[in-house]
Amino acid sequence: MSKLDKLLRELCPNGVEYKRIGDFAMCFPGATPKTTHPEYWENGTIPWMSSGEVNQEEVTFTEKKITQKGYDETSTKMVPVGTVVIALAGQGKTRGKVAITRIPLCTNQSLCAIVVDETVISKYLFHYLRSQYARIREISSGDGTRGGLNLKMIKAYVVPVPPIEVQEEIVRILDSYTEKIDELIQNLMTEITARNTQYGYYRDKLLKAETNAHKYKLGEIATVTKLAGFEFTNYVTYSENGNIIALRGLNVKNGRLDLHDVKYVDKSDFSKLERSKLHIGDMLFTYVGTVGQVAIVEEEDKYYLAPNVALIRCDKEVLLPQYMKYYFQTTQFWDKQIRRLLQSSSMQNIPMEKIRKFEIAVPPLDVQNRIVNVLDNFEKICADLNIGLPAEIEARQKQYEYYRDKLLTFAETGNTILSRAEQSRAEQSRAEQSRAEQSRAEQSTD
After folding, report:
1. Is there a common fold for 3-180+390-445 and 214-362?
2. In a 3-state reduction of DSSP, which class is residue 279?
3. β pairing state of 303-305 and 245-247
């Protein structure tokens, strides 16, 4: 018999009492000082938490800070360490997510701070409310994407409140799971970093200028261009759906295309955008903001150029696009060309005429092919690790969620403080949770 089973038998022989959050906790929102008042924000020292920062889960920092004046002249309140915070609103999946604070801070009005009394351990409540994410979103007002929670809903939400000793043991068990997940992430990240360092070393060694390599200025062997401002303003129409993607700077990362966040341009005037149509083998180069990211286009009739990204279309009888991509990622190319240009500029950008003057050492095509094949294989190993990381973490996360939900499901005591209607809703909620657990168990077995 486990320690938890023993505690439940000894301390909860007749079940566990269910209480509304408002019966054992203070619940209050924050506020946002006016951004039009710089004296509320400039050189601020008080951490100010925004809705999206619940994704930290354990909040150890905030992106923004407010001044004492900003705090004094708004209704935001200081939230003590160990407070459970839940997002009342937010885009996408934010609404209903919970976090626990590890520093004193204040919050915006779209967050509800839940400060528990001595009958509840805040970390226990944190774990429980994480298990209730789907249910909490269901009770939100409004439709699925624009709905919102409010203080009344949070205070009325019913949770099981076992004795403190039981809560402590549940927290210990669940924290051990999350610690193992954190350790796994750290180990895998260390492995990925080591592989990427090794890959970078061999890439730089392979791409050092050979004696039989010919040096060209990029403009001599490639077309270098961009989408003009008037073209974007007059002819480009962004939309959230479609088939033709405008590749922006955020879509070009670490040598490949990142299509997690894309804009479509199907309704644009393509007759005026022929120059920015992208073809297989075209290389993209970010020249504003995050400068120097590259990626190769590998599909036809799917992509157009967006602002702040340069198109480099090389003469394939002289230079292979993949070789060019790898060359642009080498340490020596960065140190001698990109970084030097950025240091001499007051803005993080490189003009087209400077890009055309980049020097590139080009060996014969057969040598380029051999180098590309070696680096492609090495890059695939690194990519497989990057794919394996989220898959392994997801598997461990599902395991944590399964045991969390099992641990946080209790028989209800007859001495409940809830009304009959509330008891019925609570029983229905637990029945739904039980069915979900059974479904997850069956999927795990499959």
Report:
1. yes
2. coil
3. parallel
Residue carrying the six token digits 């004795």: 163
Assign residue 82 a region (left: φ > 0; alpha: ψ between -120 and 50; beta: otherwise).
left
Rounded Cα distance between 365 and 369, Å, is 6
Q: Are 259 and 242 in contact (CB under 8 A)?
A: no
Asked if 182 contacts 57 with a C-beta cutoff of 8 angstroms, the reply is no
Q: For residue 162, which of 12, 364, 371 has the smallest C-alpha distance?
A: 12
DSSP state of 77: -
Q: Is the pTM of this model over 0.90?
A: no
Phi first, then psi, for residue 347 (nearest 5°) are -120, 150
Say which amino acid occupies 369. N
Query: What's the rounded Cα separation, in Å, for the pair 356 and 258?
Result: 25
Phi and psi at 30, nearest 5°, equal: -105, -155
Per-residue pLDDT of the chain (446 residues; tens, 9 = 90+): 588 888 888 898 888 999 999 999 999 999 999 999 999 999 999 999 999 999 999 999 999 999 999 999 999 999 999 999 999 986 678 899 999 999 999 999 999 999 999 999 999 999 999 999 989 988 875 544 456 899 999 999 999 999 999 999 999 988 888 887 778 777 777 777 777 777 777 778 777 755 578 999 999 999 999 988 888 888 999 998 999 999 999 999 989 999 989 999 998 998 888 889 999 999 999 998 889 999 999 999 999 999 999 999 999 999 999 999 999 998 889 988 888 887 655 567 898 999 999 999 999 999 899 889 888 888 777 666 666 566 767 777 777 777 777 778 775 554 433 333 444 454 455 445 445 445 544 554 44
Q: How far is CA 201 from CA 193, 375, 443, in A?
A: 12, 11, 43
Q: Which residues are CB-neighbours of 383 under 8 A, at least 6 positions away?
A: none
Helix 122-131 to helix 164-206 angle (10° resolution) is 70
Nearest to 425 by CA among 164, 138, 152: 138
The CATH H-level superfamily of 3-180+390-445 is DNA methylase specificity domains (3.90.220.20)
φ and ψ at residue 389, rounded to 5 degrees: -60, -60
CATH number of 214-362: 3.90.220.20
Question: What backbone torsions phi and psi does residue 239 show, to the nearest 5 degrees?
Answer: -145, 165
Domain spans, the chain: 3-180+390-445, 214-362
Half-sphere exposure of 58 (CA within 13 A, CB side): 8
Q: CA distances (Å), 5 to each of 2, 17, 104, 248, in order?
A: 5, 17, 36, 55
* CA-to-CA separations, 188 to 183, 196, 233, 249, in angstroms, rounded: 9, 12, 44, 28
